[in-house]
Amino acid sequence: MRPAPLEETPPSEASSAVEAPVTPAKGLWTLVKEALHGTEMDLTRLPLRRAIFLLAVPMVLEMLMESVFAVVDVAFVGRLGAEAVATVGLTEGILTIIYAVGMGLSIGATAMVARRIGEKDAERAARTAVQAIGLGVMLSTVLAIAGIVFARPLLAALGGSPWVLEHGVGYTRVMMGGVVSILLLFLINAIFRGAGDAAIAMRTLALANGLNILLAPCLIFGLGPFPEMGVVGAAWATTLARSAGVLYQLFRLAQANGRLQVRREHVSLEPATMLAMVRLSGAGMVQALVTTSSWVVLVRIVSSFGSTALAGYTIAIRIVLFALLPAWGLGNAASTLLGQSMGAGDVARGEKAVWMAGRYNLIVLSTIGVVFFVFATPLMGVFTTDAAVVASGATALRIFSLSFVSCAYGMVLTSAFNGAGDTTTPTLIDLCCLWALELPLAWVLAHPFGLGEVGAYIAVPVAFAAMSASGIFLFRRGRWKTRVV
């Protein structure tokens, strides 16, 4: 079935619906089922709280499942020792470049698709989706080849130990060979989110994660008929699972029962649309690169204190991402609603959605922050039995949890800027708060001040607080309202 025709909801009813609360008769469980199944309603005409709920639930679950990839790998690889975990952590540092490209293209794709859907122009939305996928394939192919060829020197540059350089290169090469699936998984899910089909994006990650959970122990430890591949098996499991997810995404794009359907006549390169997306995504890529590269430099600072510190940091950051990715899910919900509302000519509705999502995020992250601070040691113990790694990672986890309250609004506002097509503002915020503040502060506290890896960790909540304060100030100024996508 296709979304209900526009004429079925009169403008007068749509206006009043913005302020209406979620209908009590629906019931919470009914709304949850609708969110997980995927709604066919026009999101620009639903009551705002209901629209946020219907988008946020599958988006939060999608982000949770995205983080499961990393957590599953570390959970199994952690049984192989600190050096194996360090291999995963260093490879993640290399993959941050890939994630930056994927997130940058995703920002542009979400903003452009959401704006076209808000304008009720499904044909242009489908053509935009094709251009985004084409760009993703071209860029990821180049990055995959470069990553395979330069895997060893990249690991060495990040401070890999002799064990990592001898035994971990295979893991890195397999992961880099699967870059096309990583990028397309990011990108096509962003297209679904921009269209409002968040439930499809969620189901894609559910499929990929299920396969990864099944394959990882089999290929790492050689269960049943599978070969024992050690840390390299984790890379093969992740790559195969993500590839299956991409095949499912392409299948769903071709179906006629979604908000966005790609047909054969849409599959052609349109240089003008591609160029517009490159311009919009370019700043998004820089923004993502600034963000992710800051974690790479932080890895380099921490790795100077040995494999135990690096392993503790690697596990702790995976746990933190497990908490923050649901917050990004709420941010993505606000981004979609803002983009679609701007396309429909109702900026005030989109702005209200952003502040509402920010309040919800504050509640979620405050709660998780308290849990992480109190239970840091047992949480670390789930992923490793090495007492030194547990102690080091628990310290990192407690310090990182202090930033959860301060970053709640900042994460939603960053997504909102991007959803409005203003990718420049969050990029400048990241440059100032991460490169100009966090990284220099991390190095100074770690080395000249002699605080070791703890000094590097302290710089993170300081930078997040600065990012949130800047985001609130600039979003209130409202220059994003003038952006044309």
From TrEMBL:
- Protein name per Swiss-Prot or TrEMBL: Multidrug-efflux transporter
Q: Which residues cross the membrane?
A: 51-77, 129-151, 171-192, 204-223, 229-251, 272-298, 310-339, 360-383, 395-416, 428-449, 455-475
Q: How does it sit in the membrane?
A: Multi-pass membrane protein
PANTHER family in alphabetical order: FMN_FAD EXPORTER YEEO-RELATED (PTHR43298:SF2), MULTIDRUG RESISTANCE PROTEIN NORM-RELATED (PTHR43298)
Q: Is Membrane there in the keyword field?
A: yes
Query: According to the lineage, what is the superkingdom?
Result: Bacteria
Broad class of where this protein is predominantly found: membrane
Recite the UniProt keywords alphabetically: Antiport, Cell membrane, Ion transport, Membrane, Transmembrane, Transmembrane helix, Transport
Q: Mind telling me which InterPro entries this protein's record contains?
A: MATE_fam (IPR002528), MATE_MdtK (IPR050222), MdtK-like (IPR048279)
Q: List the source organism.
A: Corallococcus soli
What compartments host this protein? Cell membrane
